[in-house]
Amino acid sequence: MAEYYDSFPVNILETNGQIVRKPINFFVRSIKVWENQHCIIDSEINGVIRGNIVNNEMHVSLYHIDYNQYLLDKLTFTEISLNRDRILWSNDLIMGGYSPAKNVPAFLSLFYQSGELCKVRFSNQVYLIELYG
Q1: What is the DSSP letter of 133?
Q2: How far apart are CA 93 and CA 64, in angstroms?
């Protein structure tokens, strides 16, 4: 079944104007972890993702999402873009995304349906982690 998300005008790294930054508060009901295009974890959980805007950066905290070997529970993203079906937060997008360790994502993608956040995706060169509300 195809997933349909709200659409956004393409605005990579704010080259087409400033993007409004908004905090997030997302209740997570399930997680999928992908490695080399294979799903290695598919579980139901009860977690929370909170993202606060501090100095125009997204500071993310994860609560009750205990998968530290794949995803740290405190993360910061410095850049924002709009990319068709998502709001994309990143670190060093122009260079392909900076990730100092395999459990530190370079990208945070926020997917919305009818204006409500419905999926959060963290990714880097090793893992793709999808969290659903």
Answers
A1: -
A2: 29
Phi, psi of 70 (to 5 degrees): -110, -25
Q: Which pLDDT score is estimated for 58? A: 98
Distances (CA, A) of 67 to 47, 111, 131: 11, 21, 12
Whole-prediction pTM value? 0.95
CA–CA separation, 111 and 8 (whole Å): 10
**Mean pLDDT per 10-residue section of the chain, whose length is 133 residues:** 87 97 98 96 98 98 96 97 97 88 95 97 96 97
pLDDT value at residue 96:
85
DSSP 42-103: EEEEEEEEEEEEETTEEEEEEES---TTT--SEEEE-EEEEEETEEEEESSGGGT---SSTT
- Tell me what pLDDT residue 17 has: 97
Q: Check if the beta carbon of residue 58 is closer than 8 Å to that of residue 26.
A: no
Burial of residue 37 (CB within 10 Å: 0-12, 13-18, 19+) is exposed
The string of DSSP letters for 26-38 reads EEEEEEEEEETTE
